[in-house]
Amino acid sequence: MAVLVGASYVLDLRVLGIGRNVPLSEYRWVFPTLAIGLAVNIVTGILLFIKDPTTWGTAIPFFVKMALVIASVATLVPMRSLVNGNTGAGHADVSSNMRLLAIASIIVWTGAVTAGRLLAYLVV
Amino acid sequence: VNLAHLHLILNHVPTVGSVAALGLLILGYARRNEHLKHVGLEVLFVIAILTLPVYVSGVAAHQELRALKQAAEDPIRVHQDAALIGFTVMEFAGFVGWVALWQWRRRGAAAQGLVPVATILLIVALAVMGRAANLGGEIRHPEILAGGAATPAGDPNRFMTYAINQVAVYSTWVWPAAEAVHFIGLSLSLGVLIAVNLRILGAMKRVPFADVHRLLPWGMLGFGANLVTGMFFFVGQPAQYTSSAPFYWKVAFLVIAGANFLYLTVFTKAWGPEGADGDHRFDAGLTDKSMAILSLASWLGVLYAGRMLPFLGKSF
Question: For the whole model, what pTM was predicted?
């Protein structure tokens, strides 16, 4: 989880302008890292789900969390084309839409982590 | 060696260490020697890290003394409150010292006034820690008390640690909210450290190291959030951690990871003679790569031990 969310945060921070003289194309390492984190979480998440499917499958906070996770992962798709399509030449290479996307990404990831953590208290 | 014994060994570190760090800083001012100040801040940062195991082992020692029923409870609680204040000031001093070191590395100088602020915080930390140490000595050494007899016990509910414990137990939302912040903070810290360490291990080679170094304060932000929330859990419900083996693994990994963080902040090889602005293509040597691997391994150790607290230990 921290690998996945942490690597996303780092990329979002770059898109928002932290360390802006690093070309975005240098952030390609983020995506294999994200893939590892996501794969581990999907496998372990399914295992945790099938341990008690009637509880999780009927819990609304669980669906809120899953919606936030899907939204978070969805923000990565345009991010990926931004990074891959970047030639590394210009420095002012981020459109305002991408900045909004980075902010949205930080918010939905933070929401997903919060919702996931609160499952332990909301769903018994 | 049990944890109470470990506390007796480690408890000298914050006071003696602060004196050493302060001595270096004062010498640095007296001789107008920036290097000495730099070393003083590094020592301060290390002492701030080591104060964490001192505090947590002290709470474990409290539990063991309580089981023996041989020491009065009140002096222990008085000592514990003083130690918590000392710990807090020490961590602030360490944090300001770290910011100064980071700016030093990045711009060749710390911001105006930052080193004096760290020095003053260190003096306050030393004073509070000295008092805590003295109160700690009185727990089992009545012979050092001037008046002969200990002061009579006051209201057992007057302590700061007691108030924090009440919030942890009776508030329905503070604990879950702190847990959520703790997870977000760990994501931020780990993400930044993965980026910086992968750069040392060979990813993003075309990026000057100075530009990944730029990310370190964000890692520190995540770590700060986790230190605050983590200490809230520990002070709020100490018994579920002091008897937990994974908790001590976690603290041990944190100390290693903290030392590594200092290394990443200050090490010189990545910086060309032209300083941070030059596009110095840093190629890490074996030592740096070993440090990077150690750093990632210890952070994963922190995460694993932390997540396993409810399963290998008995916390919730």
Answer: 0.85
